[in-house]
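Read as chain and fold; for instance:
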Amino acid sequence: MGHSRDDKAASHDRIVRIAAARFRESGVDGIGVAELMQEAGLTHGGFYRHFASRDDLVAEAVEMALGHSRVQTTTTGPDGAPRDYAEFVAAYLDPAHRDDPANGCAVAALAGEAGRLDERPRAAFTRQFKTNLDNVAAMQRAKVPDAGRADALLAASALVGAVALSRAVSDPALSDEILAAVRARLVALTEV
């Protein structure tokens, strides 16, 4: 008995969602196709009914993960009101974000390996970073009207770097210190 198109589409989406979370959590090479398919409740053999190659899955999953990041870095809050730069920085550099890479910013999770990805996911990564950069710049300009692109580049790089480093170090106190110090310095840059 065959599966309907809706079932196939739902399975495909489930595989991509799981891969997007696992790639943020463990890196693109941190989980294999067999493990992903098992977590999705499907057989390893069924993978090629959904994707021409692992690279196709990687591209879709990275794009989905980055789409999740787009929501996190938007310039408006859930209520539609403009998002405050200091509140955004505090949320991004919060230990809860650090401790939940599967649901966190894909730019921070994948920055170290994005340069080794194929053209399609790397281009998606670049587009997302540019969007994040524009959003950070808009939030900064709301506080300091003459804030420039260099200010946004500094903040975006510091945000991503702080999360990546805070996840990388084995000393919990140092990890917390990285987040707190970068958060304080980034907020201070927009205080007039």
The mean pLDDT is 89. The radius of gyration is 18 Å.
